[in-house]
Q: What sequence folds into this?
């Protein structure tokens, strides 16, 4: 099978590309990536001479390019997306463009050529989930951030193309994912690389928000099973039962790094911050036989170890005057200036 992997130079996408090339000797991959800030050629550097891999730079919204690529491939797995909630609060329009219109362009080509498409989505489409409740695939989509709304919009287009035109589309909804090569705007790579530099770790609000933590390699394996065996028109939750409040995740991270908890700095919260996401992922376990291979400690520690052993990867991103630095200043400078300690007192650092 020849698979078009869109967004394949990003975090989970590049994990998927490597895994498929390693595990399926008969498969070839065409990676398409726009190489915006999070798509990084360094993520695929080791594949530059790979006989079963081709890289194309381009945007999923480019209908004529997509037509050419979909015609020559057997299936599409779409990782291409704007992914960061905080950026969606600062500049929502790019999210609408890529996560909704871009998905539409892929669906339209899949329809023309009769291809299967896997749309990689997120648990955030379910919105804030009360303690004790686990979202199932039948639950209502109730996104609350511009990011989650755009991902839900992309999903609804997928569903409509299945119902209206019979397009063979399958959706995955993954939990918070960590692992090698994640752009350091997300909490774990941001906090690891901050801690390694002795910088404060900006915890939003009380830090009691809960997420479920999944390893990228486990997530990629689930997506691949869905590509090969998922039922047309269905959605599959991909969770890990690793629910942790952020503050607990951050303490575990500092303990593994051997860095002091005094780096923890409570800063003003993200507006509309969802308190909890949690998935019921019985469907993928019972129907497709998937489960994550790693515990919470393995998921977190393998991730941290990768950033510790690849400083050249994240230092190239965290340069003075870089895109990262501009974003970091915009997102965090005022927050850190009004930081408080655990008791709400103004912090001295
Ligand atoms: P993030 O990695 O942005 O994923 P998401 O919001 O999509 O789940 O954030 C994970 C959690 O960590 C979320 O509750 C927000 C919190 N967080 C902080 O407290 N500080 C930060 O600097 C970041 C980036 C996130």
A:
């Amino acid at each position: 099978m020849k698979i078009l992997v869109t967004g394949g130079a990003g975090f989970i996408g590049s994990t998927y590309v490597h895994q498929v090339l390693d595990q399926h000797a008969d498969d070839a991959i065409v990676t398409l990536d726009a190489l915006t800030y999070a798509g990084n050629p360094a993520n695929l550097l080791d594949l530059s001479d790979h006989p079963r891999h081709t890289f194309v730079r381009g945007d999923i919204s480019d209908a004529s390019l997509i037509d050419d690529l979909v015609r020559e491939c057997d299936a599409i797995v779409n990782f291409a997306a704007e992914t960061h909630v905080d950026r969606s609060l600062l500049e929502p329009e790019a999210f609408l463009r890529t996560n909704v219109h871009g998905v539409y362009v892929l669906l339209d080509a899949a329809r023309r050529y009769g291809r299967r498409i896997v749309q990689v989505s997120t648990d955030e489409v379910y919105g804030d989930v009360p303690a004790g409740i686990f979202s199932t695939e039948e639950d209502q989509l109730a996104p609350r951030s511009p990011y989650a709304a755009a991902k839900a919009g992309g999903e609804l287009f997928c569903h409509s193309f299945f119902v209206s035109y019979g397009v063979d589309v399958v959706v995955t909804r993954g939990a918070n994912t960590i692992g090698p090569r994640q752009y350091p705007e997300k909490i774990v790579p941001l906090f690891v690389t901050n801690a390694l530099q002795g910088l404060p770790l900006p915890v939003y609000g009380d830090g009691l928000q809960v997420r479920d933590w999944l390893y990228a390699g486990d997530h990629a394996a689930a997506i691949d099973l869905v590509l090969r065996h998922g039922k047309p028109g269905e959605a599959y939750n991909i969770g890990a039962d690793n629910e942790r409040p952020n503050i607990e995740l951050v303490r575990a991270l500092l303990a593994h790094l051997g860095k002091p908890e005094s780096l923890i700095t409570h800063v003003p919260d993200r507006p509309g911050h969802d308190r909890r996401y949690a998935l019921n992922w019985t469907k993928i376990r019972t129907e497709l036989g998937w489960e994550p291979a790693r515990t919470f400690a393995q998921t977190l520690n393998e991730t941290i170890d990768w950033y510790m052993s690849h400083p050249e990867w994240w230092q190239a991103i965290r340069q003075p005057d870089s895109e990262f630095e501009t974003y970091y200043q915009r997102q965090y400078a005022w927050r850190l200036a009004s930081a408080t300690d655990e008791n709400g007192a103004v912090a001295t650092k």
